[in-house]
Amino acid sequence: MLRQVFTYSIEIYLSDANYFLTHHINQIAFHINGGSKLYFPIRLARLIHLLSSFWVIALAFIIFVDVIGRTVLNSPLPGTKEILQNSIVCISFLQLPLAIYTGSMLRTSIFVDALPALGRKILRSVTCILGLIVFIGIIQSTYPSFIDAYSIGEYEGEGALRVPTWPVRGVVLITAVFTAFSYITMLILDWLDKLEHELEAPGAS
Asked: Smallest Cα–Cα separation from 49: which of 18, 82, 95?
């Protein structure tokens, strides 16, 4: 059942990513030419952020069942450790695109507020470029391990429940691609003076 859930999630992300890659540049060009807001990327970011929220609720239930099993029945829920350690990674990456579009990434305003408008824009551009470099590196390092994990059926855990690793690597890979495109989008919109409050993509709030 767990494998089916992971597989279904990956299939959804792959189909969304394919649509995203083919339409993302057109969406940016449409917005540059005075079109409407970047609905699809932001809606996709909100969708996967919502998915991560439900995932957190599911983890809370798993932890509750495991604690009750340990204390009352002296029988912990098999695979809890493996599920948790893989889920935390996925949840973190699923929340990144929306955090970028809404300007919610960690920042300090003490230094930024002291800069003029051009200085703030340059600083934002530097952070976008650095973020883009980081996630390109993550993509390059994750893709081979994802292929290998899928090919050999790599898993974690022993006994009753074995958690496959390729769905987690797939989620990291796809969301890293989405995050990289988010940084590119924000960089373009910033230099076109399209950001709201110098932080948010149009329609992200």
From this structure: 95
Record the tokens describing residue 69, joined without a space.
């099993």
Query: In degrees, to the nearest 5, what angle opens at C-alpha 132 toward C-alphas 141 and 190?
Result: 165
Compute the Cα dihedral for 96, 101, 106, 111 and give only its sign: positive
How many degrees, rounded to 5, is the angle at CA 126 between CA 94 and CA 96? Answer: 5
How many angstroms separate the Cα of 119 from the Cα of each of 104, 113, 124, 131, 190?
20, 10, 9, 18, 12
Q: Which pTM was predicted? A: 0.74
Give the Cα-Cα-Cα angle 55, 61, 66 (nearest 5 degrees). Answer: 125
Residue pLDDT, tens place only, 191-203: 888 888 878 877 7
For residue 97, give every residue at least 6 positions away whose Cβ sits within 8 Å of its Cβ, in sequence order, or none.
41, 44, 45, 48, 49, 175, 178, 179, 182
161-185 pLDDT, tens per residue?
777 888 889 999 999 999 999 999 9
139 within 8 A of 176, measured Cβ to Cβ: yes
Please give the biggest Cα pair distance in the chain.
64
